[in-house]
Amino acid sequence: MPNVALLLAQIVVVLVMARVVGRLMRKVGQPQVVGEMVAGIMLGPSVFGAIAPVTWGALFPTESLGFVNTLSQLGLILFMFLVGLELDTRSLRARGRSALIISWASIAAPFAMGVSLAYLLYDSLAPAGVRFSAFALFLGAAMSVTAFPVLARILEERGLTRTPLGVMAIACAAVDDVTAWLILAVVVSIARSGEAGPFWITLGGTALYVTLMLTIGGRLLARFGERVSRTGTIAQGELARVIVVVFVSAGITEVLGIHALFGAFLAGAVMPRDEKFRRALASRFEDLLIAFLLPLFFAFTGLRTQLSLVVSDASQLMALAAIMFVAVSGKFGGTAVAARFTGMSWRSGVVLGALMNTRGLMELVILNIGLDIGVISPTLFAMMVVMAIVTTLMTTPFVIRFSRGLPDAQPLPAQSAVPVAT
Questions:
Q1: What is the mean pLDDT of residues 92-118?
Q2: Distance, first Cα to last Cα, the chain
Q3: pTM for this structure?
């Protein structure tokens, strides 16, 4: 029987720490989610555990972390549902060829560099017994991801949401998210092929399920969304049905051997695209997620992150430097060069590159999956967490510095603006 008092104490400490550090980060111009990420690391063995090991061990004993993990996993399922729900394909259609070129470049460059880096890191940082193909593909996918929700929040806070640059960033990030999760689905199926059946059965079953969701599932959900779209509100019974759909979809992809989060993302992606429906549904989940469940995920990630592994010797620091170089040059550089190729100015390309280099929460989600399925080691996990935080911290200063007076950072005419759910 779980120690309820201990669990409640853990939750209180996590939420207070997340709010305090989040507010401090907002005062220096960073999104609150960055502060929550940092708060998670501070609560882990690298800071709190090092400063007060006895107190830390009493508050976060290893055997109690399963309950925090369970709550955080429920939060992640709902979060990935919202990510899928908020995908806006209209922004991609509005930018057409340029958005596709930049998106593909912003994925291909870091992915190729990540796979190449895997050759250098495999012997020293891959867990024993993991296949090189799974390790390399995972590293490529982790380098390719963009934190769509964090990027959208930064654009909103800087007043860039309805500018040519903001619309392009949203379009590219949407493509990046979908592509990264498809790659991750392949990685997980390879890593789990021994326990979930042959690889081709896993992928075949997933392809069939995705097809059914995009066709039959989409039509059924469209009917369900009609009343909500008319009234702009969602009743408790309707909300319960949505939650059932999300959890069933997550359970199916977990059984198929991909991951529950992929199913939750897919459930969101096939929901009706009507703006009223999305707002009504998102408003029911966002406050609970932001104020309660996601801080628990950041704390659980921090409790798994051992920064001492990163600084244990010079070779580890060199590996971290290589990871940072590949992450920034691949994502930031690949995006900026592709943007210039499509006719954007270098300054616009730099701002877009900085925005696409935002990894934030999505990166932490992917890293936790990699650690759970045994594709990456605790040492590499810690290095990648550092990379995720640093690249996210870089974004706002670059955007502020290079977007001042930029023509692409001026609002579009009202009729041209593409609505973006944040």
A1: 84
A2: 39
A3: 0.86
